[in-house]
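Lab manual, section 2.4: Encoding a predicted structure.

Procedure: take the sequence of the chain (175 residues), apply the prediction step described in section 2.3, and record the output as structure tokens. A sample record is shown.
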Amino acid sequence: MVFRFPKASLLIIAGLVFYQIPILSAQPASSDYKVLASKKTGLNLFTVKDLIDKGDKAISKNDLVQARKSYDKARLLTRQLLGFYRDVNGAFRGIDARIPREMDSKGREAQSLLAKINLRLAALFRRQNQPEIAVPLLIEVVKIMSPTKADGQKAYQSLLELGFVETPYAGRQRN
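Recorded output:
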């Protein structure tokens, strides 16, 4: 019997040595799992900002076709995000106030980005002598940002310059 314990002990020790124990410190960060939160490619506002930057760079190179593609992609993604934020907000309203607050915040940022994209697209269409395409974009900016905000005022001023409206906005001016 004395002989059996050393054998059993040896087998247990050998099993533990050769057993692959996962190393906790080598686990990937939780941000690796949050694929949609990636700043490079994801379903988020970072991606929208990146598309806007690409459009701006294309404008500086006078590549209006590429600029329009980037702005259109940014606009589409922003509209999708706005809908998703609104849906998640509604699902958690009255259940956990933190989540609707987060979705409201992201929604406001997305609306601001949408206004900036629309202003850029409108300027691009005006540059291409297509003001009739710029008008709906400018109206959307006035609608979502209101004429009291700087982007809303810029949009209304553009509508005035195009002759779509005739009455100048004499409201509060921002510096």
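Check your result against the sample. DSSP finds seven helices and no strands in the chain.
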